[in-house]
Amino acid sequence: xxxxxxxxxxxxxxxxxxxxxxxxxxxxxxxxxxxxxxxxxxxxxxxxxxxxxxxxxxxxxxxxxxxxxxxxxxxxxxxxxxxxxxxxxxxxxxxxxxxxxxxxxxxxxxxxxxxxxxxxxxxxxxxxxxxxxxxxxxxxxxxxxxxxxxxxxxxxxxxxxxxxxxxxxxxxxxxxxxxxxxxxxxxxxxxxxxxxxxxxxxxxxxxxxxxxxxxxxxxxxxxxxxxxxxxxxxxxxxxxxxxxxxxxxxxxxxxxxxxxxxxxxxxxxxxxxxxxxxxxxxxxxxxxxxxxxxxxxxxxxxxxxxxxxxxxxxxxxxx
Length: 319
Ligand SMILES: [Fe+2]
Ligand SMILES: [Fe+2]
Description:
CATH class: Mainly Alpha
Order of helices and strands: HHHHHHHHHEEEEHH
Largest sheet: 2 strands, antiparallel
Radius of gyration: 21 Å
Helix content: 55-70%
CATH superfamily: Ferritin, core subunit, four-helix bundle
Oligomer: single chain
Low-confidence stretches: none
Distance between the termini: 63 Å
Strand order of the largest sheet: 1-2
Strand content: under 5%
Bound molecules: fe (ii) ion
CATH topology: Ferritin
Shape: globular
Mean pLDDT: 94
């Protein structure tokens, strides 16, 4: 390293330390010029995952359209899709400030590289499954975006997520309302709802990835891009989801434990992995490496669902 390079490296390091000190003191960062390379890289990675995963909800929600029972349900699905396009757009507009072309990221990225959760790559079998997924999984997704709105040290990201979170809350409330409706309608719909809950509930619990003790302390937390850890979000979701299930009469593998004064899983191995062919969970404990490896492989619609998205054939069945 030459002297000039050494001076530059030490200047960059002190700029990095100065920004970190401001952030840790609770200051919010407003301007793009204030971003240091490390902070910028953390925000970029967060935005890339967030923006792309909003896009992938489209290809999943679309599969509910054919199985929706009536026009009201079809309108609700279209509304959801429209909201999710908006979420991708909101976060994409912010991401473009980092010099990224969101159009390219959404419509020209290699379909095999989309960041998503595998549940978004399974077709929806009936409308009960769609509303149950809203009730449990939009609830799960909202904890991640809500954390960013409440705590992110980059102020523009907080503002971007206001509308997103308002709509995510609407999605899970919509899901909760109709889950209850179909659970109480008749024996047939009750069974559809319970079957959907058995499939969907573990996706919510596995939503946040590895537990904290296996993850270390990521830069996202050091730079206060996030405040809630994976374990914190999982615990918040478990409480909220189990409480909803108990109020509605749904059977879930979790309960409130009086002795611990906390919500605990009960009857669900953790971690476990899914069986894509059976569209079910294995229901036996596995290793985190295997579970995460299968999550990365994705579900059966991958990558065809993203190829379809890129061909923009969305109008085909709608009109
Ligand atoms: Fe969303
Ligand atoms: Fe949503």
